[in-house]
Amino acid sequence: MSLFRNPFAAAAAALVLSACGPQAQPTEAPPSETPSQPSTDTAGSTLPRELDPLFAQAAQEFNVPVELLKAVSYAETRWQMVVGEAEFPGQQPASGLMALRGEDLVQGAALAGVTVEAARTDALSNLRAGAARLSQLATDANVERGDLAAWAPVVAQLSGITNPEAQAEHVHRGVYAVLNEGAVALNQDGSVAASLEPVQVEAKFERPQVRAMAAGPDYGAAVWRPSPNYNARPTGTAGDPSMIIIHTCEGSYSSCWSWLTNSASQVSAHYVVNESGSEISQLVREASRGWHIGATYDSSLNGGTSSWLNGVSANHFTIGIEHGGYASQTSFPAGQIDASAKLSCDIARDNAIIKDSYHIVAHGRLQPATRTDPGPNWPWSTYISKINSYCGTATPTGEIFVDSNNANNDASKAKFSTTGAWTDGYSSGYYGSGYYYAATEAISAPATFEFYLPTAQTRTIDAWWVAGTNRSATAPFIAYNASGAEVGRVSVNQQVNGSKWVTLGTYSFTAGWNKIQLSRWTTPGYVVMADAVRVR
Protein backbone atom coordinates (compact mmCIF):
# COMPACT_ATOMS: atom_id res chain seq x y z
CA MET A 1 0.00 0.00 0.00
CA SER A 2 1.29 3.42 -0.81
CA LEU A 3 -1.57 5.90 -0.56
CA PHE A 4 -3.82 6.62 2.42
CA ARG A 5 -6.78 8.91 2.58
CA ASN A 6 -8.26 9.72 5.93
CA PRO A 7 -9.86 12.95 7.12
CA PHE A 8 -8.80 12.06 10.65
CA ALA A 9 -5.05 11.92 10.02
CA ALA A 10 -2.57 11.96 7.18
CA ALA A 11 -1.22 8.46 7.46
CA ALA A 12 1.74 6.57 6.14
CA ALA A 13 1.82 3.81 3.58
CA ALA A 14 1.47 0.26 4.87
CA LEU A 15 4.62 -1.67 5.62
CA VAL A 16 5.57 -4.59 3.41
CA LEU A 17 7.96 -7.05 5.04
CA SER A 18 9.69 -9.59 2.86
CA ALA A 19 11.54 -12.67 4.00
CA CYS A 20 15.31 -12.39 4.02
CA GLY A 21 16.74 -13.97 0.88
CA PRO A 22 20.16 -15.52 0.33
CA GLN A 23 23.03 -13.14 0.86
CA ALA A 24 25.86 -12.42 -1.54
CA GLN A 25 29.04 -14.37 -0.96
CA PRO A 26 31.28 -13.72 0.79
CA THR A 27 28.90 -12.34 3.41
CA GLU A 28 29.39 -8.83 4.68
CA ALA A 29 30.59 -8.68 8.27
CA PRO A 30 30.50 -5.82 10.79
CA PRO A 31 33.70 -3.90 11.47
CA SER A 32 34.35 -6.19 14.44
CA GLU A 33 34.77 -8.99 11.85
CA THR A 34 32.20 -11.15 13.66
CA PRO A 35 29.67 -12.24 11.02
CA SER A 36 26.14 -11.49 12.15
CA GLN A 37 22.77 -10.55 10.79
CA PRO A 38 21.73 -6.91 11.18
CA SER A 39 19.21 -6.43 13.96
CA THR A 40 16.77 -4.95 11.47
CA ASP A 41 16.78 -8.06 9.25
CA THR A 42 13.71 -9.55 10.94
CA ALA A 43 11.91 -11.94 8.64
CA GLY A 44 8.24 -11.20 8.09
CA SER A 45 5.40 -12.01 5.75
CA THR A 46 4.38 -9.83 2.85
CA LEU A 47 1.30 -7.78 3.63
CA PRO A 48 -1.60 -8.97 1.42
CA ARG A 49 -3.02 -6.56 -1.14
CA GLU A 50 -6.52 -6.96 0.29
CA LEU A 51 -6.88 -6.57 4.03
CA ASP A 52 -10.66 -6.19 4.23
CA PRO A 53 -11.35 -9.95 3.90
CA LEU A 54 -8.80 -10.67 6.64
CA PHE A 55 -10.40 -8.19 9.03
CA ALA A 56 -13.82 -9.67 8.23
CA GLN A 57 -12.66 -13.24 8.83
CA ALA A 58 -10.99 -12.46 12.17
CA ALA A 59 -13.90 -10.33 13.38
CA GLN A 60 -16.55 -12.91 12.51
CA GLU A 61 -14.60 -15.82 14.01
CA PHE A 62 -14.26 -14.13 17.41
CA ASN A 63 -17.48 -12.11 17.45
CA VAL A 64 -15.83 -8.70 17.42
CA PRO A 65 -17.32 -5.80 15.40
CA VAL A 66 -15.25 -5.56 12.25
CA GLU A 67 -15.40 -1.75 12.38
CA LEU A 68 -13.86 -1.80 15.84
CA LEU A 69 -11.12 -4.23 14.82
CA LYS A 70 -10.19 -1.98 11.89
CA ALA A 71 -10.27 1.18 13.99
CA VAL A 72 -8.03 -0.29 16.71
CA SER A 73 -5.55 -1.48 14.09
CA TYR A 74 -5.53 1.86 12.29
CA ALA A 75 -5.09 3.89 15.47
CA GLU A 76 -2.17 1.69 16.52
CA THR A 77 -0.31 1.10 13.25
CA ARG A 78 -2.05 2.94 10.38
CA TRP A 79 -2.68 -0.58 8.99
CA GLN A 80 1.01 -1.34 8.78
CA MET A 81 2.56 -4.71 9.60
CA VAL A 82 5.00 -3.35 12.17
CA VAL A 83 8.00 -5.11 13.66
CA GLY A 84 8.57 -3.03 16.76
CA GLU A 85 11.59 -2.75 18.99
CA ALA A 86 11.74 -1.81 22.66
CA GLU A 87 12.28 1.94 22.63
CA PHE A 88 11.97 2.26 26.41
CA PRO A 89 13.17 0.00 29.27
CA GLY A 90 10.30 -2.27 30.26
CA GLN A 91 8.44 -1.74 26.99
CA GLN A 92 7.54 -4.89 25.05
CA PRO A 93 7.97 -4.68 21.26
CA ALA A 94 4.78 -4.32 19.23
CA SER A 95 3.99 -6.67 16.35
CA GLY A 96 1.77 -6.78 13.31
CA LEU A 97 -1.29 -4.86 12.19
CA MET A 98 -2.66 -4.84 15.74
CA ALA A 99 0.60 -3.82 17.45
CA LEU A 100 0.21 -6.72 19.88
CA ARG A 101 2.79 -6.90 22.63
CA GLY A 102 3.65 -8.86 25.75
CA GLU A 103 0.87 -10.91 27.31
CA ASP A 104 -1.67 -9.64 24.80
CA LEU A 105 0.42 -11.18 22.02
CA VAL A 106 0.98 -14.45 23.90
CA GLN A 107 -2.62 -14.86 25.06
CA GLY A 108 -4.07 -13.75 21.74
CA ALA A 109 -1.93 -16.28 19.87
CA ALA A 110 -3.02 -19.08 22.24
CA LEU A 111 -6.70 -18.16 21.90
CA ALA A 112 -6.37 -18.07 18.10
CA GLY A 113 -4.51 -21.38 18.02
CA VAL A 114 -1.41 -19.98 16.32
CA THR A 115 2.20 -19.72 17.38
CA VAL A 116 3.51 -16.48 18.84
CA GLU A 117 5.86 -16.19 15.88
CA ALA A 118 2.94 -16.49 13.43
CA ALA A 119 1.00 -13.89 15.41
CA ARG A 120 4.00 -11.57 15.13
CA THR A 121 4.76 -11.98 11.42
CA ASP A 122 1.65 -13.21 9.57
CA ALA A 123 -1.07 -10.65 8.86
CA LEU A 124 -4.09 -12.93 9.28
CA SER A 125 -2.66 -14.67 12.36
CA ASN A 126 -1.99 -11.28 13.92
CA LEU A 127 -5.53 -10.08 13.24
CA ARG A 128 -7.00 -13.33 14.59
CA ALA A 129 -4.85 -13.06 17.73
CA GLY A 130 -5.92 -9.45 18.21
CA ALA A 131 -9.59 -10.26 17.70
CA ALA A 132 -9.35 -13.22 20.05
CA ARG A 133 -7.78 -11.10 22.78
CA LEU A 134 -10.39 -8.34 22.33
CA SER A 135 -13.12 -10.96 22.54
CA GLN A 136 -11.70 -12.40 25.74
CA LEU A 137 -11.49 -8.93 27.34
CA ALA A 138 -15.06 -8.19 26.22
CA THR A 139 -16.30 -11.41 27.84
CA ASP A 140 -14.50 -10.56 31.05
CA ALA A 141 -16.05 -7.05 31.00
CA ASN A 142 -19.57 -8.31 30.14
CA VAL A 143 -19.70 -6.10 27.04
CA GLU A 144 -22.83 -6.02 24.89
CA ARG A 145 -21.07 -7.03 21.67
CA GLY A 146 -23.45 -5.29 19.30
CA ASP A 147 -22.96 -1.94 21.03
CA LEU A 148 -19.86 -0.31 19.52
CA ALA A 149 -19.83 2.37 22.21
CA ALA A 150 -19.66 -0.24 24.97
CA TRP A 151 -16.34 -1.61 23.70
CA ALA A 152 -14.47 1.53 24.78
CA PRO A 153 -13.16 0.15 28.13
CA VAL A 154 -11.88 -2.94 26.29
CA VAL A 155 -10.10 -0.70 23.76
CA ALA A 156 -8.46 1.17 26.64
CA GLN A 157 -7.39 -2.07 28.30
CA LEU A 158 -5.84 -3.52 25.14
CA SER A 159 -3.81 -0.32 24.62
CA GLY A 160 -1.79 -1.04 27.77
CA ILE A 161 -2.04 2.63 28.75
CA THR A 162 -2.51 3.18 32.49
CA ASN A 163 -2.59 6.99 32.67
CA PRO A 164 -6.33 7.94 32.75
CA GLU A 165 -5.88 11.07 30.63
CA ALA A 166 -3.84 9.19 28.03
CA GLN A 167 -6.38 6.35 28.05
CA ALA A 168 -9.19 8.82 27.35
CA GLU A 169 -7.18 10.48 24.58
CA HIS A 170 -6.44 7.10 22.98
CA VAL A 171 -10.10 6.08 23.09
CA HIS A 172 -11.78 9.33 22.00
CA ARG A 173 -9.14 11.00 19.80
CA GLY A 174 -7.67 7.75 18.57
CA VAL A 175 -9.82 4.68 18.01
CA TYR A 176 -13.26 6.28 18.14
CA ALA A 177 -12.13 9.23 16.05
CA VAL A 178 -11.16 6.72 13.36
CA LEU A 179 -14.60 5.10 13.67
CA ASN A 180 -16.32 8.45 13.25
CA GLU A 181 -14.14 9.72 10.41
CA GLY A 182 -13.39 6.52 8.50
CA ALA A 183 -10.23 5.62 6.59
CA VAL A 184 -9.13 4.16 3.26
CA ALA A 185 -5.84 2.52 2.26
CA LEU A 186 -4.98 2.14 -1.42
CA ASN A 187 -2.47 -0.09 -3.15
CA GLN A 188 0.00 1.44 -5.60
CA ASP A 189 -2.31 0.64 -8.52
CA GLY A 190 -5.18 2.50 -6.85
CA SER A 191 -7.10 -0.58 -5.73
CA VAL A 192 -8.51 -0.59 -2.20
CA ALA A 193 -6.46 -2.54 0.32
CA ALA A 194 -8.54 -1.67 3.38
CA SER A 195 -11.42 0.65 4.12
CA LEU A 196 -13.57 1.78 7.01
CA GLU A 197 -16.81 3.63 6.40
CA PRO A 198 -17.58 6.33 8.99
CA VAL A 199 -19.70 5.13 11.90
CA GLN A 200 -21.20 7.79 14.16
CA VAL A 201 -20.69 6.52 17.69
CA GLU A 202 -19.87 8.10 21.06
CA ALA A 203 -17.56 6.00 23.22
CA LYS A 204 -18.89 5.02 26.63
CA PHE A 205 -15.75 6.18 28.33
CA GLU A 206 -14.81 9.23 30.37
CA ARG A 207 -13.65 12.01 28.07
CA PRO A 208 -10.23 13.68 28.37
CA GLN A 209 -10.22 16.21 31.15
CA VAL A 210 -11.61 19.54 29.98
CA ARG A 211 -9.10 22.10 31.18
CA ALA A 212 -6.85 24.75 29.82
CA MET A 213 -3.68 22.95 28.78
CA ALA A 214 -0.57 24.99 29.48
CA ALA A 215 1.65 25.74 26.51
CA GLY A 216 5.12 24.26 26.38
CA PRO A 217 7.60 26.52 28.17
CA ASP A 218 10.00 26.41 25.20
CA TYR A 219 7.60 25.77 22.32
CA GLY A 220 4.29 27.57 22.51
CA ALA A 221 2.61 25.25 19.98
CA ALA A 222 3.15 22.29 22.32
CA VAL A 223 1.05 21.03 25.23
CA TRP A 224 2.96 21.06 28.54
CA ARG A 225 2.87 17.62 30.13
CA PRO A 226 5.80 17.75 32.55
CA SER A 227 7.77 14.58 33.21
CA PRO A 228 9.55 13.97 36.53
CA ASN A 229 12.26 12.07 34.68
CA TYR A 230 15.00 14.63 34.16
CA ASN A 231 17.91 16.29 35.91
CA ALA A 232 20.24 19.25 35.45
CA ARG A 233 22.66 19.34 32.54
CA PRO A 234 26.32 19.47 33.58
CA THR A 235 27.97 22.85 33.61
CA GLY A 236 30.32 23.80 30.83
CA THR A 237 30.10 23.37 27.08
CA ALA A 238 29.53 19.59 27.32
CA GLY A 239 26.15 20.40 28.84
CA ASP A 240 25.05 22.92 26.22
CA PRO A 241 22.51 21.47 23.77
CA SER A 242 24.31 20.95 20.47
CA MET A 243 22.37 18.08 18.85
CA ILE A 244 18.77 16.99 18.33
CA ILE A 245 18.01 13.26 18.47
CA ILE A 246 15.10 11.87 16.41
CA HIS A 247 13.23 8.88 17.90
CA THR A 248 10.14 6.81 17.19
CA CYS A 249 7.99 5.77 20.14
CA GLU A 250 7.47 2.20 18.85
CA GLY A 251 3.85 2.79 19.75
CA SER A 252 1.09 5.38 19.65
CA TYR A 253 1.44 9.01 20.69
CA SER A 254 -0.81 8.67 23.76
CA SER A 255 1.01 5.60 25.06
CA CYS A 256 4.32 7.36 24.43
CA TRP A 257 3.81 10.54 26.46
CA SER A 258 2.02 8.50 29.12
CA TRP A 259 5.07 6.26 29.55
CA LEU A 260 7.53 9.14 29.45
CA THR A 261 5.71 11.06 32.17
CA ASN A 262 5.51 8.06 34.49
CA SER A 263 8.11 8.31 37.26
CA ALA A 264 8.43 4.52 37.34
CA SER A 265 9.65 4.38 33.75
CA GLN A 266 12.79 6.44 34.45
CA VAL A 267 12.85 7.64 30.83
CA SER A 268 11.77 10.83 29.11
CA ALA A 269 12.17 12.95 26.02
CA HIS A 270 11.85 16.67 25.61
CA TYR A 271 9.03 16.40 23.04
CA VAL A 272 6.59 13.91 21.49
CA VAL A 273 4.95 14.56 18.09
CA ASN A 274 1.70 12.78 17.30
CA GLU A 275 1.11 10.75 14.14
CA SER A 276 -0.77 13.42 12.20
CA GLY A 277 1.31 16.37 13.42
CA SER A 278 -1.78 17.95 14.98
CA GLU A 279 -0.39 17.86 18.54
CA ILE A 280 3.00 18.01 20.21
CA SER A 281 3.68 17.46 23.90
CA GLN A 282 6.62 19.03 25.70
CA LEU A 283 7.71 16.89 28.64
CA VAL A 284 11.08 18.34 29.69
CA ARG A 285 12.47 21.87 29.41
CA GLU A 286 15.20 22.19 26.80
CA ALA A 287 17.59 23.56 29.43
CA SER A 288 17.21 20.31 31.42
CA ARG A 289 18.74 16.92 30.76
CA GLY A 290 16.15 14.45 29.45
CA TRP A 291 16.70 10.69 29.72
CA HIS A 292 16.13 9.61 26.13
CA ILE A 293 19.30 7.94 24.86
CA GLY A 294 21.25 5.23 26.65
CA ALA A 295 24.66 5.74 25.08
CA THR A 296 27.89 7.63 25.49
CA TYR A 297 28.85 9.63 22.43
CA ASP A 298 31.13 8.12 19.79
CA SER A 299 31.99 10.56 17.00
CA SER A 300 33.02 7.70 14.68
CA LEU A 301 29.32 6.88 14.37
CA ASN A 302 28.57 10.43 13.28
CA GLY A 303 31.12 11.37 10.66
CA GLY A 304 33.74 12.44 13.19
CA THR A 305 31.51 15.32 14.34
CA SER A 306 32.29 16.81 17.79
CA SER A 307 34.94 14.24 18.66
CA TRP A 308 35.76 16.23 21.80
CA LEU A 309 32.48 14.86 23.22
CA ASN A 310 33.59 11.23 22.90
CA GLY A 311 32.78 9.25 26.03
CA VAL A 312 30.26 11.84 27.28
CA SER A 313 26.68 10.75 27.98
CA ALA A 314 24.68 11.76 24.91
CA ASN A 315 21.88 12.98 27.18
CA HIS A 316 24.16 15.77 28.42
CA PHE A 317 24.16 17.76 25.18
CA THR A 318 21.12 16.56 23.21
CA ILE A 319 17.41 17.36 22.95
CA GLY A 320 15.19 14.37 22.20
CA ILE A 321 12.08 14.33 19.98
CA GLU A 322 9.90 11.20 20.03
CA HIS A 323 7.37 10.52 17.26
CA GLY A 324 4.27 8.37 17.42
CA GLY A 325 5.01 5.41 15.14
CA TYR A 326 7.57 2.72 14.45
CA ALA A 327 11.07 2.40 13.00
CA SER A 328 9.79 -0.39 10.75
CA GLN A 329 7.14 1.64 8.94
CA THR A 330 7.66 2.29 5.25
CA SER A 331 6.89 6.01 5.35
CA PHE A 332 5.87 8.77 7.72
CA PRO A 333 2.80 11.04 7.51
CA ALA A 334 3.54 14.35 5.83
CA GLY A 335 1.83 16.24 8.65
CA GLN A 336 4.04 14.62 11.26
CA ILE A 337 7.24 15.39 9.33
CA ASP A 338 6.14 18.98 8.79
CA ALA A 339 5.24 19.57 12.46
CA SER A 340 8.48 17.96 13.62
CA ALA A 341 10.54 20.08 11.20
CA LYS A 342 8.97 23.26 12.58
CA LEU A 343 9.78 22.08 16.10
CA SER A 344 13.39 21.20 15.19
CA CYS A 345 13.82 24.61 13.58
CA ASP A 346 12.65 26.28 16.79
CA ILE A 347 14.95 24.14 18.96
CA ALA A 348 17.95 24.67 16.68
CA ARG A 349 17.38 28.42 16.48
CA ASP A 350 17.00 28.85 20.25
CA ASN A 351 20.02 26.69 21.08
CA ALA A 352 22.31 27.65 18.17
CA ILE A 353 22.35 24.04 16.90
CA ILE A 354 23.73 23.49 13.40
CA LYS A 355 20.90 22.39 11.10
CA ASP A 356 22.46 19.45 9.27
CA SER A 357 22.41 15.65 9.41
CA TYR A 358 25.36 15.54 11.84
CA HIS A 359 23.63 17.65 14.48
CA ILE A 360 20.04 16.48 13.89
CA VAL A 361 20.56 12.73 13.97
CA ALA A 362 18.85 9.37 14.38
CA HIS A 363 18.72 7.62 17.74
CA GLY A 364 19.84 4.48 15.91
CA ARG A 365 22.96 6.18 14.58
CA LEU A 366 24.24 7.07 18.05
CA GLN A 367 23.02 3.87 19.76
CA PRO A 368 23.31 1.26 16.98
CA ALA A 369 23.80 -1.75 19.24
CA THR A 370 20.21 -1.66 20.51
CA ARG A 371 18.22 0.88 18.48
CA THR A 372 17.35 1.51 14.82
CA ASP A 373 14.79 4.34 15.15
CA PRO A 374 13.52 6.32 13.40
CA GLY A 375 14.31 3.59 10.86
CA PRO A 376 15.51 3.43 7.27
CA ASN A 377 12.51 5.28 5.82
CA TRP A 378 12.65 8.51 7.79
CA PRO A 379 12.87 11.13 4.97
CA TRP A 380 16.10 12.80 6.09
CA SER A 381 16.70 14.94 3.02
CA THR A 382 13.15 16.32 3.08
CA TYR A 383 13.29 16.76 6.84
CA ILE A 384 16.54 18.73 6.93
CA SER A 385 15.40 20.83 3.96
CA LYS A 386 12.14 21.65 5.73
CA ILE A 387 13.98 22.64 8.91
CA ASN A 388 16.24 24.99 6.99
CA SER A 389 13.29 26.36 5.06
CA TYR A 390 11.36 27.15 8.23
CA CYS A 391 14.43 28.70 9.77
CA GLY A 392 15.12 30.77 6.67
CA THR A 393 18.48 29.13 6.06
CA ALA A 394 19.83 26.87 3.36
CA THR A 395 21.83 23.68 3.26
CA PRO A 396 25.56 24.14 2.49
CA THR A 397 25.81 25.97 -0.82
CA GLY A 398 26.10 23.66 -3.79
CA GLU A 399 26.48 20.43 -1.83
CA ILE A 400 24.50 17.38 -3.00
CA PHE A 401 24.23 14.23 -0.89
CA VAL A 402 23.31 10.94 -2.57
CA ASP A 403 22.38 8.26 -0.03
CA SER A 404 21.90 4.56 -0.78
CA ASN A 405 18.32 4.92 0.49
CA ASN A 406 16.34 7.06 -1.95
CA ALA A 407 13.94 8.03 0.85
CA ASN A 408 16.77 10.28 2.07
CA ASN A 409 17.45 11.86 -1.32
CA ASP A 410 16.04 14.95 -2.96
CA ALA A 411 14.65 13.24 -6.07
CA SER A 412 15.13 16.40 -8.13
CA LYS A 413 18.90 16.17 -7.84
CA ALA A 414 19.97 12.84 -6.29
CA LYS A 415 19.13 9.17 -6.84
CA PHE A 416 20.63 5.74 -6.22
CA SER A 417 20.29 2.38 -7.99
CA THR A 418 22.00 -1.00 -8.22
CA THR A 419 22.49 -3.54 -10.99
CA GLY A 420 22.86 -7.21 -10.13
CA ALA A 421 23.00 -8.82 -6.69
CA TRP A 422 23.45 -6.26 -3.91
CA THR A 423 22.42 -6.82 -0.28
CA ASP A 424 21.40 -4.19 2.24
CA GLY A 425 23.33 -3.96 5.53
CA TYR A 426 23.22 -1.99 8.77
CA SER A 427 26.54 -2.43 10.61
CA SER A 428 27.24 0.63 12.73
CA GLY A 429 28.90 3.66 11.22
CA TYR A 430 26.80 4.00 8.09
CA TYR A 431 25.63 7.30 6.61
CA GLY A 432 21.90 7.99 6.37
CA SER A 433 19.91 4.74 6.51
CA GLY A 434 22.16 1.71 6.00
CA TYR A 435 24.06 0.75 2.87
CA TYR A 436 24.43 -1.94 0.18
CA TYR A 437 27.29 -4.38 -0.35
CA ALA A 438 28.17 -6.95 -3.02
CA ALA A 439 30.81 -9.60 -3.64
CA THR A 440 33.72 -8.67 -5.89
CA GLU A 441 33.96 -10.62 -9.14
CA ALA A 442 34.69 -10.15 -12.85
CA ILE A 443 31.47 -8.28 -13.52
CA SER A 444 30.68 -4.59 -13.30
CA ALA A 445 27.03 -4.77 -12.06
CA PRO A 446 27.59 -1.45 -10.29
CA ALA A 447 25.93 0.64 -7.61
CA THR A 448 25.17 4.03 -9.16
CA PHE A 449 25.00 7.40 -7.40
CA GLU A 450 23.45 10.00 -9.72
CA PHE A 451 23.32 13.77 -9.23
CA TYR A 452 21.87 16.57 -11.31
CA LEU A 453 23.78 19.72 -12.24
CA PRO A 454 21.99 22.57 -14.08
CA THR A 455 25.23 23.67 -15.77
CA ALA A 456 28.66 22.24 -16.52
CA GLN A 457 30.70 22.36 -13.32
CA THR A 458 33.89 21.06 -11.74
CA ARG A 459 33.02 19.24 -8.52
CA THR A 460 34.85 17.33 -5.79
CA ILE A 461 33.42 13.89 -4.95
CA ASP A 462 33.58 12.27 -1.50
CA ALA A 463 32.39 8.78 -0.55
CA TRP A 464 31.33 7.16 2.73
CA TRP A 465 31.56 3.48 3.70
CA VAL A 466 31.69 1.20 6.73
CA ALA A 467 35.19 -0.27 6.99
CA GLY A 468 36.09 -3.90 7.76
CA THR A 469 38.77 -6.48 6.94
CA ASN A 470 36.60 -8.28 4.39
CA ARG A 471 36.17 -5.10 2.33
CA SER A 472 37.98 -4.58 -0.95
CA ALA A 473 41.29 -2.74 -0.80
CA THR A 474 40.80 -1.71 -4.44
CA ALA A 475 37.13 -0.71 -4.64
CA PRO A 476 36.75 0.98 -8.06
CA PHE A 477 34.78 4.25 -8.20
CA ILE A 478 34.23 5.63 -11.73
CA ALA A 479 32.92 9.11 -12.57
CA TYR A 480 30.80 9.78 -15.69
CA ASN A 481 29.41 13.03 -17.05
CA ALA A 482 25.80 13.45 -18.20
CA SER A 483 26.76 12.30 -21.71
CA GLY A 484 28.04 9.00 -20.36
CA ALA A 485 31.71 9.77 -20.92
CA GLU A 486 34.14 8.66 -18.21
CA VAL A 487 35.78 11.66 -16.55
CA GLY A 488 37.84 9.89 -13.90
CA ARG A 489 38.30 6.79 -11.78
CA VAL A 490 40.00 5.83 -8.53
CA SER A 491 40.47 2.68 -6.46
CA VAL A 492 40.04 3.07 -2.70
CA ASN A 493 40.82 0.85 0.27
CA GLN A 494 37.51 0.21 2.06
CA GLN A 495 39.25 -1.74 4.82
CA VAL A 496 40.19 1.60 6.37
CA ASN A 497 38.91 5.19 6.67
CA GLY A 498 35.38 4.07 7.44
CA SER A 499 32.44 6.15 8.70
CA LYS A 500 33.70 9.46 7.38
CA TRP A 501 33.88 11.33 4.10
CA VAL A 502 36.84 10.30 1.95
CA THR A 503 37.74 12.35 -1.12
CA LEU A 504 37.71 10.42 -4.40
CA GLY A 505 38.80 13.27 -6.64
CA THR A 506 37.82 16.44 -8.48
CA TYR A 507 36.23 16.02 -11.93
CA SER A 508 34.65 18.08 -14.72
CA PHE A 509 30.94 17.28 -15.15
CA THR A 510 28.36 18.45 -17.69
CA ALA A 511 24.80 19.75 -17.30
CA GLY A 512 22.29 17.02 -16.52
CA TRP A 513 22.46 13.74 -14.61
CA ASN A 514 26.06 12.77 -13.85
CA LYS A 515 27.10 9.49 -12.22
CA ILE A 516 29.51 7.98 -9.74
CA GLN A 517 29.54 4.20 -10.10
CA LEU A 518 31.02 1.67 -7.68
CA SER A 519 32.00 -1.38 -9.71
CA ARG A 520 32.45 -4.93 -8.40
CA TRP A 521 35.13 -5.77 -10.97
CA THR A 522 38.23 -6.08 -8.83
CA THR A 523 40.14 -8.70 -6.82
CA PRO A 524 37.67 -11.48 -5.88
CA GLY A 525 37.06 -12.68 -2.33
CA TYR A 526 35.93 -9.37 -0.84
CA VAL A 527 32.92 -7.06 -0.80
CA VAL A 528 32.52 -3.47 -1.95
CA MET A 529 30.44 -1.02 0.10
CA ALA A 530 27.95 1.42 -1.47
CA ASP A 531 26.79 3.81 1.25
CA ALA A 532 26.75 7.49 0.23
CA VAL A 533 28.40 10.07 -2.02
CA ARG A 534 28.82 13.81 -1.45
CA VAL A 535 29.18 16.27 -4.33
CA ARG A 536 30.81 19.57 -3.36
Helix content: 10-25%
CATH architecture of the largest domain: Orthogonal Bundle
Shape: globular
Rg result: 24 Å
Strand order of the largest sheet: 6-10-9-12-8-13
Number of domains: 3
Per the CATH scheme, the topology name of the largest domain is Lysozyme
Average pLDDT taken over every residue: 88
The low-confidence runs, each spanning 5 or more residues with pLDDT under 50, are: 1-45
Strand content: 15-25%
Structural class: alpha+beta
Helix tally equals 11
Give the termini separation. 37 Å
Number of strand segments: 25
Taking the sheet with the most strands, its summary is: 6 strands, mixed
Highest CATH level, the class of the largest domain: Mainly Alpha
Spell out the key features of this protein.
536 residues; alpha+beta; Lysozyme; Lysozyme-like; Jelly Rolls; 3 domains; six-stranded mixed sheet; five-stranded antiparallel sheet; 21% strand
Structure description:
- It catalyses: Hydrolyzes the link between N-acetylmuramoyl residues and L-amino acid residues in certain cell-wall glycopeptides.
- One of its GO terms (biological process) is cell wall organization.
- Residues 22-47 are annotated as: Disordered.
- Residues 227-375 form the N-acetylmuramoyl-L-alanine amidase domain.
- The protein is α+β, with helices and mostly antiparallel strands and 536 residues long.
- The chain folds into three domains: 3-196, Lysozyme, CATH 1.10.530; 223-390, Peptidoglycan recognition protein-like (Lysozyme-like), CATH 3.40.80.10; 400-535, Galactose-binding domain-like (Jelly Rolls), CATH 2.60.120.
- Helices cover 23% and strands 21% of the residues.
- The chain is built from eleven helices and 25 strands.
- The chain has helices at 52-61, 66-77, 102-112, 116-121, 123-140, 152-159, 164-181, 253-260, 334-351, 363-366, 380-390; strands spanning 3-5, 82-83, 95-96, 183-186, 192-196, 223-224, 230-232, 243-246, 271-273, 280-282, 288-290, 318-323, 360-362, 400-403, 414-418, 423-425, 435-439, 447-453, 457-464, 475-480, 486-492, 502-509, 512-518, 527-530, 532-535.
- The longest helix has 18 residues, at 123-140.
- It is globular, with a radius of gyration of 24 Å.
